[in-house]
């Protein structure tokens, strides 16, 4: 195995571990007793930050977390496919 190939495999492993860590964190958040969410943004064509919005609607926050978990899980599946081909 060349050094370049080793670096590619190591980077891939790091990406996989990062995705797995994010999924674990989301699972911990979903199972927590209290959830709160801070929403920030920047208006189009502006460098100023828009006012912040805080939400404590647990059901809505869990839906958002589940969608994010699903997206990350799909990315993880793809990374694992690439890793198994190495």
Nutshell version of this structure?
With 86 residues, this protein is mostly helical. The chain has two helices and two strands.
Main pleated-sheet profile: 2 strands, antiparallel
Order of helices and strands: HEEH
Principal-axes geometry comes out as flat
The helix count comes to 2
Termini separation comes to 11 Å
Q: Residue-averaged pLDDT, rounded?
A: 91
Radius of gyration: 18 Å
Strand content: 5-15%
Question: What structural category arises from helix and sheet content?
Answer: mainly alpha
Provide the number of structural domains: 1
Could you give the order of strands across the largest sheet?
1-2
How do the strands and helices of this protein lay out in sequence?
Blueprint: H1 3-30, E1 37-39, E2 53-55, H2 58-85
Helix pairs in contact: 1-2
């Amino acid at each position: 195995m060349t050094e370049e190939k080793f670096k590619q495999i190591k980077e891939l492993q790091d990406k996989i571990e990062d995705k797995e860590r994010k999924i674990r964190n989301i699972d911990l958040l979903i199972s927590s007793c209290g959830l709160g969410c801070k929403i920030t943004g920047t208006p189009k064509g502006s460098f100023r930050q828009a006012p912040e919005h805080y939400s404590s609607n647990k059901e809505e926050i869990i839906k958002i977390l589940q969608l994010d978990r699903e997206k990350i899980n799909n990315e993880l599946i793809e990374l694992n496919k690439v890793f198994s081909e190495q």
